[in-house]
Design goal:
245 residues, alpha/beta, eight-stranded mixed beta sheet, 8 helices, 19% strand
């Protein structure tokens, strides 16, 4: 299977020409991008980036969108200063690169961010969303972090947590029907396992005709045929957060 040898052979997609409305801050040992809504709020969303890192304009665009919807959005550098993956890198070296960036080993950074949100921003309710690598990280956090209220995993690499389904918090899983990296049989298996083991609310949704990264790496003006699904994915994500935060 292609995704066994190249677990995330993802194309960076349509890079947004977007500057961001938030600011970069230092939170203890990590840098983070923070965007706040116009009105004060006690709700926040941690945004977990994909392999292309915390500075990708596309990810900041989504963080700003969350702020527009009333949330403090924070996108920390979960690679902690290590280089993000570049489209020009050799995929043959991807496995070695990934070994030092484990989506299941971000707990220390998450604790630091949670403390910052509570102490510096007065936040009481916190959710998390993540894309691809970050989607796998969301599943990890939903399995073990008691301080988060809900999560949205967008095309999170399922194989990373294939045997773990006892989620602590309501979780929404977004997948594309034509995702080369996450075959539909893996999504079906995830649904079966959740049905058997999960005691909290969850939803698994597959968007017709969509490829990996469609919610944040596709520009709707370049892909008019995908626009309804890009918009639907973003709306579903916001609705889920609104429901549980």
């Amino acid at each position: 299977m292609a995704n066994e040898s190249r677990p995330c052979p993802c194309d960076i997609g349509d890079r947004f020409d977007y500057g961001g409305r938030g600011q970069e801050v230092q939170v203890e040992h990590i840098k983070a991008y923070v965007c706040k809504p116009p009105a004060s709020t006690d709700k926040a969303v941690i945004v977990i980036h994909d392999i292309f890192g915390w500075q990708l304009p596309n990810t900041r665009y989504i963080a700003d969108m969350l702020a527009t919807n009333g949330y403090i959005a924070i996108c920390p550098d979960f690679f902690v200063g290590q280089e993000a993956w570049k489209p020009s890198n050799d995929w043959a070296s991807f496995d070695d690169w990934l070994k030092t960036r484990d989506a299941g080993k971000i707990d220390k950074e998450v604790d630091v961010v949670l403390k910052y949100l509570k102490d510096q921003c007065g936040v009481k309710k916190i959710g998390v969303i993540g894309f691809c690598w970050g989607g796998a990280a969301v599943q990890h956090l939903m399995l073990k972090n008691p301080h988060l209220k809900t999560g949205v995993s967008l095309y999170g690499v399922i194989r990373r947590f294939a045997d773990k389904h006892s989620l602590l918090h309501p979780t929404f899983f977004i997948f594309g029907e034509k995702d080369d990296i996450i075959p539909l049989e893996q999504v079906t298996l995830l649904e079966q396992k959740l049905k058997q083991n999960c005691k909290v609310d969850y939803e698994v949704k597959i968007y017709p005709g969509q490829t990996h990264g469609f919610v944040h790496r596709k520009r709707e003006d370049i892909n008019p045929q995908d626009k309804p699904y890009i918009e639907e994915g973003r709306k579903d994500m916001i609705n889920w957060l609104n429901k549980y935060l």
